[in-house]
Structures are given as structure tokens and as C-alpha cells.
Fold this sequence. Notes:
The chain is an alpha/beta fold.
Amino acid sequence: xxxxxxxxxxxxxxxxxxxxxxxxxxxxxxxxxxxxxxxxxxxxxxxxxxxxxxxxxxxxxxx
Length: 63
């Protein structure tokens, strides 16, 4: 069987919508930005992602 790389992505907003995207077989949520930093930190800690206070702080790990 060929192993497939999962898409790594970040989201703006760390509320309920992240729950929809966090557990998929084709992608892995690696970062979330939210103006409510406590929301971003709590979500990130629960799945091992990186929290950000603003989307402009997010960086692409492939750069």
C-alpha cells in the first residue's frame, strides 16, 4: 500500500468550526489563529497545533 502524505493546514478561528476539520484522514490541522488567544491556545493544546493571535502571524512551514 502506498502511504499518502496528509495535507497540513491552518485555520483562522479556533471555535467550533475547527472541530469539523481537526480529525480527518486526508488533512491535519497544525495551526489556528483567533483574536481570542485563549481559544486558540486551548484548541492548539488539545491537538498539538500551534496557536496564533492573528492570521498575519501564521507562517508556512515549507518556506
